[in-house]
Amino acid sequence: xxxxxxxxxxxxxxxxxxxxxxxxxxxxxxxxxxxxxxxxxxxxxxxxxxxxxxxxxxxxxxxxxxxxxxxxxxxxxxxxxxxxxxxxxxxxxxxxxxxxxxxxxxxxxxxxxxxxxxxxxxxxxxxxxxxxxxxxxxxxxxxxxxxxxxxxxxxxxxxxxxxxxxxxxxxxxxxxxxxxxxxxxxxxxxxxxxxxxxxxxxxxxxxxxxxxxxxxxxxxxxxxxxxxxxxxxxxxxxxxxxxxxxxxxxxxxxxxxxxxxxxxxxxxxxxxxxxxxxxxxxxxxxxxxxxxxxxxxxxxxxxxxxxxxxxxxxxxxxxxxxxxxxxxxxxxxxxxxxxxxxxxxxxxxxxxxxxxxxxxxxxxxxxxxxxxxxxxxxxxxxxxxxxxxxxxxxxxxxxxxxxxxxxxxxxxxxxxxxxxxxxxxxxxxxxxxxxxxxxxxxxxx
Length: 445
Prior knowledge:
- By secondary structure, the chain is mostly helical.
- It contains 17 helices and no strands.
- α7 runs antiparallel to α9 (203-213).
- The protein is globular and about 70 Å long.
- The chain starts with 26 loop residues before the first helix and ends with a helix.
């Protein structure tokens, strides 16, 4: 079978220049980029303090991961070798300026163009256009973030719930001396650990696939994602090791407030409001580390995914039909869909190579599972030093929501923020759905 003959018809993409590529302005442009980078960094740290803000961070990071994958593919293309800049390439194919720069937190990516009145638009339509422009990216980040965290919760939350139950049951059994029920807590915890490790063998690249493709359903392409894990197990092993290493300082920062009273004798005499003010400031400054660690892991996973897709499509392990339309178009624009299947070898050599690959893959998956076990072990070990109620078990900031704020319930109960977030999100998306319905009715009439 010739893989090149099995390719579907190529999607022809016009090379028309949609707008003039951005022009470098020298020192002023670099200074402006530094200022914008710092502002986006500060906003990211601020958003780590709320649940809604953490959802926005998930969506923003997925958009950044998509840009990172496109940048990787461009760096492996002939256009990079010819000296064409990424901005010039995107200027030809990205009229919305979605990926020329890092994603915005709130305003439209191309704010100036978004507030220009379209030819033939009515006053009402133009007014709606002006109202959307300052909040377009915020809406996109919220939507993408909700889709991303929901899919992540589907595979990781069952394990977190089992950890929480095991922790409560273990302590209750310890205090009440229920010897007959003694195995329940440990066995539940072990089951939760096994489920989490199994999920994390899949989740990082599944998150990357969802981010790069822009479709939430692509998260559940199990055969495709697992094929990438199988062929690039070493990269997944390194990603797991980096995740566990990054998690250690996060756990230290989460636990550190328990020692505040040892350093300051007046700490136990502080009022609830004073404690709240102190912890708010502490967790805000901690977010300046948590936020970049979370972003780095998502971007690294996206680059591993992009490399795996490019390698697979060029060796024939992945067919063009396996790609989403967005991936197919981007790779064709860069002229990267070139199948170079490996040379045919003697059957004995193929059997030996397959056996060796299987042994290495099995050893690699086992090692990756051990590393993810060290990730989970940190949660349980640090849980003995500082108890943070259900939040510490149900949300791991480098895997799920980058929400980093562990306020004791007697100082401020997080349930209030949880319900407020759910209400605000329902109100926002309900209003948008109602607005779309009303605009559709007005068009018909």
